[in-house]
């Protein structure tokens, strides 16, 4: 029987800073997706990867990936390192890594270098570190998805509504929204017959009352988008909190459709 599931997630991966980096055999390049597998991302691939992650090399701390624009991402893995790079599609990324100035150089394993991120699946990234852009991999980590982060900069295409943030507005929230009621999408019969499956990423504006005020598709799977939107609009959340008060923020919700 076909199954469809919703997972609160903001996917991630980044493309290459330079064509030469992807061509080097020592550092594995992200696999190319079939052209028909996904539609263009209207708000940029960087948004698909923003969120909170945990590395198997540092299970005590979270790391955060932020979208600074349609293709620019920043990665903060404190107290270990910071990085910034480009996400040109949804399969992988390359970023320049630096040790934060306040961390003694002798105590850090993350000297200035290059980080390649590759998507292993919807909830897992492989992080490959190298000393230079075309260098061999010197360190490998596995990053696991924890959840979205509240600040998602992007083009200002949404209206937000009275008293609500537009998509891309910065909202300083100490507590992120938490889904308390989720609705599984109905698998469209036409998509089932055509053997269409995949993950639709929906951007949802969660209001102060925990209701979804606005939603749009950030990552499309033709034939499944409408069902994903209809389901996410019925979700209910504990709202984000800023200084103890509920605030409205945007979050990314992946909706996964599987025939198996």
Describe the protein's architecture and organization.
It is a single chain. The chain has 260 residues and is mainly β. It folds into two domains: 3-147, no CATH class; 178-258, 2-Layer Sandwich (TolA/TonB C-terminal domain). It has helices at 19-23, 46-49, 189-193, 225-232, and strands at residues 3-6, 51-55, 63-67, 72-77, 81-86, 92-98, 113-121, 124-130, 137-147, 178-181, 198-206, 212-219, 236-238, 240-242, 245-247, 249-258. Strands 2-3-4-5-6-7-8-9 form an eight-stranded antiparallel beta barrel. It has a four-stranded antiparallel beta sheet with strand order 1-16-11-12, covered by helices on one side. The chain has a two-stranded antiparallel sheet with strand order 10-13. Strand 11 and strand 12 (212-219) form a beta hairpin. It is globular and about 50 Å long.
Topology summary:
Layout: E1 3-6, H1 19-23, H2 46-49, E2 51-55, E3 63-67, E4 72-77, E5 81-86, E6 92-98, E7 113-121, E8 124-130, E9 137-147, E10 178-181, H3 189-193, E11 198-206, E12 212-219, H4 225-232, E13 236-238, E14 240-242, E15 245-247, E16 249-258
Antiparallel strand pairs: 1-16, 2-3, 2-9, 3-4, 4-5, 5-6, 6-7, 7-8, 8-9, 10-13, 11-12, 11-16, 14-15
């Amino acid at each position: 029987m076909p199954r469809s599931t919703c997972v609160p997630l903001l996917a991630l991966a980044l493309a290459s800073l330079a064509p030469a980096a992807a061509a080097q055999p020592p550092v594995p390049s992200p696999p190319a997706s079939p052209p028909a597998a996904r539609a263009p991302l209207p708000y940029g691939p960087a948004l698909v990867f923003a969120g909170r992650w945990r590395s198997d090399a540092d299970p005590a701390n979270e790391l955060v990936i932020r979208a600074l624009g349609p293709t620019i991402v920043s990665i903060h893995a404190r107290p270990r390192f910071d990085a910034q790079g480009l996400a040109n599609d949804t399969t992988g990324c390359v970023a320049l890594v630096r040790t934060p100035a306040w961390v003694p150089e002798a105590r850090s394993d993350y000297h200035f270098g290059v980080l390649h991120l590759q998507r292993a699946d919807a909830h897992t990234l492989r992080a490959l570190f190298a000393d230079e852009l075309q260098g061999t991999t010197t360190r490998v980590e596995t990053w696991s998805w924890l959840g979205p982060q509240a600040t998602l900069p992007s083009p200002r295409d949404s209206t937000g509504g009275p008293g609500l943030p537009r998509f891309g507005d910065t909202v300083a929230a100490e507590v992120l929204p938490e889904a308390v009621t989720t609705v599984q999408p109905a698998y469209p019969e036409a998509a089932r017959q055509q053997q269409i499956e995949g993950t639709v990423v929906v951007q949802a504006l969660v209001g102060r009352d925990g209701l979804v005020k606005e939603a749009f598709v950030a990552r499309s799977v033709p034939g499944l988008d409408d069902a994903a939107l209809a389901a996410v609009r019925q979700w209910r959340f504990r709202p984000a909190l800023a200084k103890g008060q509920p605030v409205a923020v945007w979050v990314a919700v992946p909706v996964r459709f599987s025939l198996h």
